[in-house]
Amino acid sequence: MAVESHSATPEAADGDQAPSHHPPAPCDELFDVSTTVDPGYIISLIRKLLPPDGKNSNKSDHASKEAVLTGVGESDGMETADYCGQQCQRVRNDQCEAVNGADSKLWEESGCILWDLSATRTHAEFMVENLVLEVLLANFTVLNSDRVKEICLGIIGNLACHDLPRKQIISTKGLVEMIVYQLVSDDTPCLCEVCRVITLGLQGTDCVTWAEALQSENILTRLLWIIENALNPLLIERSVQFLLAIIESPQEVVSILLPSLIKLGLPNLLIKLLDFELGILMKERVTERYSVLEIILSTIEALSVIDDHSQELSSSKELVRLLCTLIKLPDKFEVANCCVSAAVLIANILSDAVDVALELSTASSALWTVLASILAKVEESEMMMSSLHKYVSLLVNNSDHIEDSLLDSQSVESHANMEPSISSFKPSAKTITLRKIINMLSYWTAAREENLDDGEDPNHEVEPIRECKENKENVHRLLECCRKYVQL
């Protein structure tokens, strides 16, 4: 594709220089960059995103944004956000040229192409070098369109996946604050993207900058309101991932944000979300909601290990009831990871509240009953090795959780004055499960060794799944652990 010739600065149709709030056009005389797309084409797309003139809109929008972030204005955070949003809209309607018709379609097509291209590191770095972030910031300031905001945030989200562009996002004055301000939006796709961008920011090396931009109680109140009132599964998932990113951030970020979130009712909100998702799971099986349930449990689990804030969860009888309900659900192999998270949560609760051991002993038994019923369907000697790998991978990846559950079951039995050894005439569900795990791991190990001895390609079906860290040592460790508890 031929490189289109452009002047150094964008000019209006009448020959006047472009508005001063626009960033200068990037230089396209030299392209010392390795991309799979013509650099001139990328620059032409960036130029097509330049917004129309919007005199004074930058100042007015900035003032409204500051009111939301600092809490100036109404005493209630939600009312302040609504008020400022109305003021912003009034300013834009009065002073900004609307983009519609053919111009709107051209802008959207160009933005979507850049959204796709920004997923590649070399393209992303080239885009940032050529002022795409300044152009996107100008669009936030001038254009009043949910679709425009969604596309801008989508591009920024992809840029944030790469180290250099993510640092440039921080360096672009006013951009982080403008992104955070988009939480006042009522548009679901826009909120999905802004949650994704901030989550990526909190997972980066400049996470403290993002935390400082988020620390206003009004903004945190708005975040919790979005999570509590969202109906779209993707928005629920991404907004809870936002919370998880905060909880799993370095201590400096946790200290800035978590105390306020706890004060605003975060633990109770997470329990309500768990209750809601379990209610759906018990009525119907909606595949797209499994990941929502899993991220909620992961967030509760992460919060349960923070010493200063775990007590509110461990003292919740409602949480214990919900965890027991999840574990007791029959025929739920598709949410097996959720059951594992529930077991870990029970272990964490036991460490904080030993007095609930008797109550949780039935849940522990139920967990092993569920696992026993799932593994009973596995006939390792009659299935393809690739299928067996899936079970072995699941077991090995969760070996720490299995070991913890075994330790906790001993603790529960001890507190309940029960005999910790497995010596009853009728094997317990735990014994049945452990024996099945032993058989599966032993069969897998023998089959793997036999195929390797026969000279079969080790990268064929029997090769361990590297992403799951499944290897001989891990399998052997889990195998020995199960044998130990069966022999107790």
Describe the model:
It is a single chain. The chain is mainly α. Among the domains are: 39-48 and 101-213, Leucine-rich Repeat Variant; 381-409 and 428-450 and 468-487, no CATH class. It contains 24 helices and no strands. The N and C termini lie far apart (72 Å). Residues 1-33, 54-100, 415-425 and 455-470 have low confidence and may be disordered. It is found in: Nucleus.
Short description:
The chain has 488 residues and is mainly α. The protein contains 24 helices and no strands.
Query: Strand portion, in percent?
Result: under 5%
Alpha-beta classification: mainly alpha
In one word, what is the shape? globular
Order of helices and strands: HHHHHHHHHHHHHHHHHHHHHHHH
Number of helices: 24
Give the N-to-C terminal Cα separation.
72 Å
What is the CATH homology-level superfamily of the domain at 39-48 and 101-213? Leucine-rich Repeat Variant
Number of strands: 0
CATH architecture of the domain at 39-48 and 101-213: Alpha Horseshoe
CATH-assigned fold name of the domain at 39-48 and 101-213: Leucine-rich Repeat Variant
Q: Report the helical percentage.
A: 55-70%
Keywords: Nucleus
Main location: nucleus
Protein name: ARM repeat superfamily protein
InterPro entries: ARM-like, ARM-type_fold, Synovial_Prolif_Regulator
Question: Top keywords for this entry?
Answer:
68% helix; 488 residues; disordered N terminus; Leucine-rich Repeat Variant; globular; mainly alpha
Topology overview:
Blueprint: H1 39-48, H2 57-70, H3 77-95, H4 101-117, H5 121-129, H6 132-142, H7 146-159, H8 163-171, H9 175-181, H10 188-202, H11 207-214, H12 217-229, H13 233-247, H14 251-263, H15 266-283, H16 290-304, H17 311-314, H18 317-328, H19 336-352, H20 357-375, H21 385-397, H22 399-415, H23 429-453, H24 472-487
